[in-house]
Structures are given as structure tokens and as C-alpha cells.
Amino acid sequence: MATSYDYAPLFRSSVGFDRVFNLLENAQRARTVSDWPPYDIVKTGDDTYRITIAVAGFSQDDLNLTFQSNLLTIAGNKGEPQGEGYLHRGIAGRPFEHRFELADHVRVSGADLTNGLLSIDLVREIPEAMKPRKIDIQTNATLAETQNAPKIGSRTAA
């Protein structure tokens, strides 16, 4: 049984959260997509993550990774082998596509294919302008000193 949520009341009472509501709506629609091949998402540090996908049987040329405007897409398409007569085929080689919506300031730092596991490293880099900064608190005494300080070029009688 699928549950559908109506976000209209939240749209009416909030400003600037459009992207969050769109993510929630897209996540509900995306559940119909197959979860094959299986994958893990691991937080490896304070600002680093790794997505690992089991892509046994796929070569580096069969995989395609793209990152555009906070959307990471991993697609695999293995061509059909020519002239092989399988008696049993248990290793899946069907095409797949996984899409991951990444947060702002998260970028792909690298990808590696080892032993049938595709590992994609992600890092969150917050720009300096958005990082917290310390604000100095001034007292009335320091404010008075700065106002009474002698000014260069002031016109006073000597």
C-alpha cells in the first residue's frame, strides 16, 4: 500500500523550502525503481561519504557516472555477449540506473572499480562565506574609545 502525502499546506506557510518538498515528492515516485544492483551509502568522516555499488560482471567501459546540479547518476549497460550459448545464466547483466540527489556543496571527489565494487567518494565543501564566524562583542567603553579617538585631519583650533 503506497501512501501519498499532500505538501500543499506546507507550501502555503513556508518560504524557500521548495527544493526540500520537491525532493520529498521525487523520493516517493522513485520507490518504483528497482534497487538492483545493491548499494551501500557510508559516512566515512564529518564531511565525507562513500557510495559503493555491487557491479559484478561490469567493466569500467560498461559504467557511466555523471554529476550535474546536485544529481549523481550511475548507469550500467553491458552489451550482450556474442556467440556464447549459456546453459544457465545467473550473473545478472541487465542495464541499470541509480540516481542520488546530493545536498548543496557536495561534490564527487573520485571513483574506483575494484573486485566488482564501484566506490564513489563524495565530499562536502562549505564555502568560506557560509562557514560560521566569530563576532567580537564590544562594550560601551570600547565604543566610547573609538568615538573619542583623535582623528587625522580633523579641523580643530590649536
TrEMBL record:
<keyword id="KW-0346">Stress response</keyword>
<comment type="similarity">
    <text>Belongs to the small heat shock protein (HSP20) family.</text>
</comment>
<dbReference type="InterPro" id="IPR037913">
    <property type="entry name" value="ACD_IbpA/B"/>
</dbReference>
<dbReference type="Pfam" id="PF00011">
    <property type="entry name" value="HSP20"/>
</dbReference>
<dbReference type="InterPro" id="IPR002068">
    <property type="entry name" value="A-crystallin/Hsp20_dom"/>
</dbReference>
<dbReference type="InterPro" id="IPR008978">
    <property type="entry name" value="HSP20-like_chaperone"/>
</dbReference>
<protein>
    <submittedName>
        <fullName>Hsp20 family protein</fullName>
    </submittedName>
</protein>
<feature type="domain" description="SHSP">
    <location>
        <begin position="30"/>
        <end position="140"/>
    </location>
</feature>
